[in-house]
Design brief:
Alpha-acetolactate decarboxylase, Acetolactate_a_deCO2ase, about 40% strand, EC 4.1.1.5, lyase, mainly beta, 17 strands, 60s Ribosomal Protein L30, Chain: A, globular, acetoin biosynthesis, 8-stranded mixed beta sheet, 5-stranded antiparallel beta sheet
C-alpha cells in the first residue's frame, strides 16, 4: 500500500491547460517525460505524480458533441494504467486496465486500441490501492454502488475503482462511430447497442467523483467492464456479481487538458437529466 502525502480534507489540486494534443502531468509536458523499461519512474528533471487523475476534456464537452480527438493513446498510456473514456468520432468505449487500452466497439468486438488513435475524452490514473474488500452476492448495479459507498470515507476526494470478480450477469453498451455534423451524446445513446453476458469473469474499472465536479466529470459512479479474456466489454449498465475483490485508490490531484476552442461545439446546453440518460 502506498504512502500518502499529508493533505487536509479540503486539499484539492486542479491544473487545467489548453492543449493541442499534450497533457501536462505533475508540471511536466508529456513530450518531456522520459521513462525507463524497468519502472514508471521518470528522469530527475520530470517525475510523474501517481496521486493525480489525468483527464482529457470535460464531460460537458463530450455531451455537447465534441468528438474530435485531442490526445493520442500512446500519450494516454504515459499518464495512467487504469481508467476509461472514448475514441475519436465516439468510436466505442475505452477500458484501461493494467496499463493496456482496449476499444469496445459498437459491434461488440473488443480490441487493443491503436496507439495513434486520438481520444476526445478520457480519465486515467496510476492505480495504488488504498482500500480493499471482498464482496459476495451483489444483486444489481445499485447494490454494488451502495456497498462501495461504505468504503468511500472522504466524500470530497476522487476514487479510482477496480473490481475483479465472477459475475452471473453483465449488461454493457457501446456507441457507434459518428460522422460530422456530430449529434449530441444524449441523441446518440438513444440507439446504443447493448450486450448481455452470463457467468463471466472480468474486471470493472472506473471512478467515483465528488458532487462538485458536475460538468467536468460524472458525479458519483462512472464504470466500464472488460472480460478476463478481453473479448467482451463496454460501459457498464447492469451487473450481478457472485463474488469479487474490490480495490479503491483515493486521490485529490486532478489535471485536465482542453482541446482547441475554435473546434468546440458549445451551442448545445447540457442538463443533469441528459447526463443521467447517457449513464443509464
Amino acid at each position: 500500500m502506498k504512502k500518502k502525502k499529508m493533505l487536509s480534507r479540503t486539499s484539492f489540486t486542479i491544473l487545467v491547460t489548453l492543449i493541442g494534443g499534450s497533457l501536462i502531468i505533475g508540471g511536466c509536458k508529456q513530450n518531456d517525460i522520459k521513462t525507463t523499461d524497468s519502472s514508471k519512474e521518470t528522469s530527475s528533471e520530470c517525475k510523474i505524480d501517481r496521486e493525480i487523475i489525468s483527464q482529457v476534456s470535460t464531460l460537458n464537452s463530450l455531451m455537447a458533441g465534441n468528438y474530435d480527438g485531442i490526445d493520442s493513446v500512446d500519450i494516454l498510456k504515459k499518464t495512467g494504467d487504469i481508467g476509461l473514456g472514448t475514441f475519436e468520432g465516439l468510436d466505442g468505449e475505452m477500458i484501461v486496465v493494467d496499463g493496456q487500452v482496449y476499444q469496445a466497439k459498437a459491434s461488440g468486438e473488443v480490441n487493443i486500441a491503436p496507439e495513434t488513435i486520438k481520444v476526445p475524452f478520457s480519465a486515467v490514473t496510476f492505480f495504488d490501492k488504498d482500500v480493499e474488500a471482498k464482496f459476495q452476492g451483489i444483486s444489481n448495479i445499485e447494490n454494488l454502488k451502495t456497498q462501495i459507498d461504505n468504503l468511500i470515507k472522504e466524500k470530497d476526494a476522487f476514487y479510482a475503482i477496480r473490481v475483479d470478480g465472477t459475475f452471473s450477469h453483465v449488461k454493457v453498451r457501446s456507441v457507434p462511430k459518428q460522422d460530422k455534423p456530430y449529434k449530441i451524446l444524449s441523441e446518440v445513446t438513444k440507439n446504443q447497442p447493448t450486450f448481455e453476458y452470463q457467468d463471466i469473469k472480468g474486471t470493472i474499472v472506473g471512478f467515483w467523483s465528488p458532487d462538485y465536479v458536475g460538468g467536468i466529470n460524472v458525479p458519483g459512479y462512472h464504470l466500464h467492464f472488460i472480460s478476463d479474456d478481453k473479448t467482451k466489454g463496454g460501459h457498464l449498465l447492469e451487473v450481478s456479481m457472485i463474488s469479487g475483490d474490490v480495490t479503491l485508490d483515493s486521490t485529490r490531484g486532478f489535471i485536465m487538458g482542453l482541446g482547441d476552442e475554435k473546434n468546440s461545439n458549445s451551442k448545445a446546453a447540457v442538463t443533469k437529466e441528459d447526463i443521467e440518460k447517457v449513464e443509464k
